[in-house]
Design goal:
Belongs to the short-chain dehydrogenases/reductases (SDR) family. InterPro entries: NAD(P)-bd_dom_sf, Sc_DH/Rdtase_CS, SDR, SDR_fam. By secondary structure, this protein is of the alpha/beta class. About 45% of the residues lie in helices and about 15% in strands. A seven-stranded parallel sheet has the order 3-2-1-4-5-6-7, sandwiched between helices. The longest helix is centred in the middle third of the chain and has 29 residues. The mean pLDDT is about 95.
Length: about 240
């Protein structure tokens, strides 16, 4: 089995790569610019016994995704599992969002998922087995003040997940989304210690999620025995949003 993780160089993406590597699957770590981080994640995966390939591409460009797909095929890496994890955050009031910012975040968070899924789902359909797992956010379900743009992209990802699941179900390909709450990654670095503490107090479990906890759910959704789960938005958020 082969898994492609977009944005797999660090954070949740790196944790997902290592979780699959623990099962000795073939791992493809996509990144845009984080070359050293991708290589370090690859080394950790290889120490777990996996065959690993790192590859860089700008997923906003169909041409670059096609080129990435061709390179992978040349090396014998054809994904059975696609984890759409690449994305960017955006903080700020809607009144301050520029048209360029809107277009950029939409392109990274939504267009890239569309293009990547469209190009990599064909072999899954042919073999009548595949998994598409989209890493969304709790804000795609509930929305967040001062994160209207980001929330909109994740809401779009959730709708994409539900619709595509129905389209691909007859082909044996499942499509699900994992929508984490607050996860202890660099995306929380914008908060100071007092803000982090206040946020933790809002979460019934009293702490942030660890990346490997999100990775475990992603891995579960990839299993053959998870074949009856599709079109679902599953939110590991510590009881924060119900």
């Amino acid at each position: 089995m082969t898994v492609l993780i977009t944005g797999g160089s660090r954070g949740i993406g790196a944790a997902i790569a290592q979780r699959f590597a623990a099962e000795r699957m073939n791992i493809i770590i996509h990144y845009l610019q984080s070359h050293e981080a991708a290589n370090e994640t690859a080394r950790r995966c290889m120490r777990l016994g996996s065959n690993v390939m790192t590859i860089s591409a700008d997923l906003r460009s169909k041409e670059q995704i096609v080129r990435m797909k061709d390179k992978l095929q040349d090396r014998g890496f054809v994904p059975d599992i696609l984890v759409n994890n690449a994305g960017v955050a955006h903080y700020g009031m809607l009144a301050d969002v520029t048209e360029q910012e809107w277009d950029d975040v939409m392109s990274v968070n939504l267009k890239s998922m569309f293009l990547t899924t469209q190009l990599f789902m064909a072999p899954m359909i042919r073999q009548r087995f595949g998994r598409v797992i989209n890493v969304s956010s709790v804000w795609g379900q509930s929305g967040a003040s001062c994160e209207v743009l980001y929330s909109t992209t994740k809401g779009g990802m959730n709708a994409f997940t539900k619709a595509l699941a129905k389209e691909l179900a007859p082909s044996g390909v499942t499509v699900n989304a994992v929508a984490p709450g607050a996860v202890d990654t660099v995306m929380l670095d914008k908060l100071d210690s007092s803000e982090k503490q206040a946020l933790e107090q809002e979460i019934p479990l009293g702490r942030f999620a660890q990346p490997d906890e999100i990775a475990s759910l992603v891995y579960f959704l990839s299993l053959p025995e998870s074949a009856y789960i599709t079109g679902q938005i599953i939110s590991p958020n510590g009881g924060w949003i119900t």
